[in-house]
Structures are given as C-alpha cells and as structure tokens.
C-alpha cells in the first residue's frame, strides 16, 4: 500500500491540508498508486476526518513526540518548506515534494525549496499547483541528500538564504 505522509511541522498551513485532501488531489494520488494518506496538521484549524476522502485511507493528527516513523513508512513525503521538516525527510532518504506557503511575507521557504530543487533533492510547488505537480511529478530524477553533514547543511542554508 503506497503511503503519503503530509507534514506542516509546528505551523498552521490549512491551505496545504485543504489542497492535499481536495477531490482532485486525492484522485491524482490514487491514480499514482497511493492508497493511504497520513496528515500531520500542526496548529491548523483543520483536522480532517477519514470520511472526507472515501477512496483513500486517511489518518490525521496534530502532533506527536516524533514523526520519524511516519516518514520512515511513507513512500512520498509532502511537506511545508520549513528547514527542519525538509532535512528530516531528506535525511530519511524519502522522495520529497515541498509545498511553499506563498502567503508568507519575506518568504525564505521559496529560496530553500528552489535551491534544493536545483540540486535535484526535492520537487516543489504551491497549493495552487499541487494537483498538477502530483500528476506530472517524476520522482526518479531526485538525488539523495547525504545526511550526517550538519556543517554542509548550515552552509547550504546560508547560501540559499543569501546570508
């Protein structure tokens, strides 16, 4: 059973939860072979119930002590563009689709996602383009991000954020 794990970290990103549970996105995920959707919704106002996605198994929660097991069990991780969430998914060697919150001011998330995409470590989109990105994504182009090199990641962040 193909599993998609969605995380918003400790933030509120209801637009992502709405987008990924839309009829169009769920149908696209199903067509791609995914049968299970696990949502970590953080502080958002939405906590979807299983019955909103009748054609796919849905589980939703706000927080856990660790999402490492959810990431480990996932065949695809969809995440907000927070550095910690990206690093955790990439460190686990999981295909990663980052959804940038384009409503944020001074959006450093876009620079991070763009740089990691240019280096072929992840794919990225916005909530508006999520379904189309899911429909056309080619996960085989992604290259591993080698974990265990925090200094390199810190340098990468500095470069991506123009520090």
TrEMBL record:
Its EC number is 2.4.1.141. Its main location: endoplasmic reticulum. The keyword Nuclease does not apply. It is found in: Endoplasmic reticulum. Residues 3-142 form the Glycosyl transferase family 28 C-terminal domain. The keyword Transferase applies. GO terms for biological process: dolichol-linked oligosaccharide biosynthetic process. GO terms for cellular component: endoplasmic reticulum. Keywords: Endoplasmic reticulum, Glycosyltransferase, Transferase. GO terms for molecular function: N-acetylglucosaminyldiphosphodolichol N-acetylglucosaminyltransferase activity. Belongs to the glycosyltransferase 28 family. This is UDP-N-acetylglucosamine transferase subunit ALG13.
């Amino acid at each position: 059973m193909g599993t998609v794990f969605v995380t918003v970290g400790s933030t509120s990103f209801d637009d992502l939860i709405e987008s990924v549970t839309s009829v169009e996105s769920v149908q696209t995920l199903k067509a791609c072979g995914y049968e299970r959707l696990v949502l970590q919704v953080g502080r958002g106002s939405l906590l979807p119930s299983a019955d909103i996605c009748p054609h796919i198994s849905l589980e939703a929660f706000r927080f856990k002590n660790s999402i490492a097991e959810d990431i480990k069990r996932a065949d695809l991780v969809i995440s907000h563009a927070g550095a910690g969430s990206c690093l955790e998914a990439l460190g686990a060697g999981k295909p990663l689709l980052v959804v940038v919150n384009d409503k944020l001011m001074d959006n450093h998330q876009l620079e991070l996602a763009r740089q990691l995409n240019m280096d072929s470590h992840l794919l990225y989109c916005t909530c508006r383009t999520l379904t189309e990105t899911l429909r056309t994504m080619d996960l085989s182009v992604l290259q591993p991000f080698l974990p265990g090199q925090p200094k390199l990641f810190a340098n990468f962040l500095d470069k991506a954020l123009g520090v």
